[in-house]
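Researcher: Good morning. I'm working through a list of sequences from a screen, and I'd like to move beyond sequence-only analysis. For each chain I'm collecting a predicted structure so we can compare shapes side by side. This is the next one on the list. No need for commentary yet; just the structure.
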Amino acid sequence: MKDWTTACMDWEKRIVAGRPLIVSPPLFPDEAQAALDVFKALRIVDAAGSPTFGEACEPWVFDFVAAIFGAYDAESGQRLIREFFLLISKKNAKSTIAAGIMMTALIRNWRMSAELLIIAPTIEVAQNSFKPAADMVRADEELTDLLHVQDHYRTITHRTTGAVLKVVAADNDTVSGKKAAFVLIDELWVFGAKPKADAMLREATGGLVSRPEGFVISLSTQSDAPPAGVFKAKLDYFRDVRDGKIDDKKSLGVLYEFPKAMLNSEAYLDPDNFYITNPNLGRSVSREWLEDELKKELAKDASTRNTFLAKHLNIEIGQNHRNNRWPGTDFWPKRAMEGLTLDHLLSVSEVVVVGIDGGGLDDLFGFAVVGRHKETRDWLVWAHAWCHEGVLERRKSIASVLLDFKRAGELTIVDDELADISEIVGIIDEINQRGLLASVAVDPAGLGEMIEALAEIGITQEGGQLIGAPQGWAMMNAIKTAERKLANGTMKHSGSKLMAWCVGNLKIEPTATGIRATKQNAGDAKIDPVMAMFDAVTVMSRNPEAPEGGTMDDYFNSLVGAA
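Model: Good morning. Structure tokens for this chain:
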């Protein structure tokens, strides 16, 4: 039995040193060499002098190709590593390499009438892979005799086996019913924004069930927005495989990204480090061009800079890449507290303030609980959000992001317009019954139904437990208080991805009398749970006490007495 690993535990040292990111040698060297002989002979027609891959490529390309084709066991007819993922910066010949890999698979394939697919998110991206593949055929007399190119259909057919390589712009209609043995997905990051992409790609790759010799390869640059959907799922999974957190010998990822320490120090802005995510630097990538473009981008708005960083340096865009971000954003990731659930927060807090920021039917209903720790007096934050299912249609640009939060248990999607209010009031009632609730702080706008529902459990403005939190510039004290407590470490949170996203969407704008918090982008950049947190901070900063000194002990004693 062969033994191998697809993990690369020391990848950070390797990538800085320019060493290979694939640890194990090809499982079947003869298969790897036979494929390399084909691959290296293919011509890159649009490069100066039309060199072959063998003449033009850096060793990392050959390592990747050898790993793919060298995983095939000719005796059993099975490929032992079946799924591959390449994350690499733009202009590192990704689409051309994709074409070369699939042409090699077409030529090496033995199955009669086999189907090979290159799936691209758009027709333009599909052309980026098909044209170099077609050019490779036309540049070689032997291949011209062996393969038939049909430009209009973006297909290349093997005249002997009848196998067909198709390059398609993806949708459910184009991939439905496919039985492809070899599938390459180009620019996976674009699919991340498509809510139904996962189902579509599963349909496209379903043919591998009965074709054990097949493979699936995903290629991508980083997304110019925080990763989402199927792209985020693949990225997280292959990182865990690479890091040894998941033992999956049938999956291999090659990810050209900066080590964490270099990200934290912004060492990626040093041109001497451009090579880390650009292994083709000096060939298909010009260092001088990258330097010139970076200088231009540093003088521009962060939104365009983010695109450059994502595409050319493979920087994952997150909450720390906005020039008008909330100052607390820089400290937010550091204050995540493992195991901070709502139940834990309530069990260790002496008093709690709930914040609510409601939205319309195309918005989120933000809910935040801020508790003061009994012993340390640190502030602990837990948040959740609700939205109506119609938001997925009205806000299609963030639908896949919202579904990610739903899967993480941080967002509830409801189909009843009163279900969110009922669930929120239920949580507040439990907190109040425990004797912990100081008050509920709300953005008064548009909360008529919520106010009525709270009154039914005795939470009213007249009773002192329902407080209208100041909004706009008047919220400045809460904003400043939260950022100071994050900076000094006396405010901690549950590490919610939903909250990290919302914090990253915050924009701080100066006003005539101070500052106000608003959204980076109108409509799709939601911040409601963070605004709910600020509502709660408004009251918590006044050092409230629980009603009549109530504690958790009082709550449990009442339960025992009732029993």
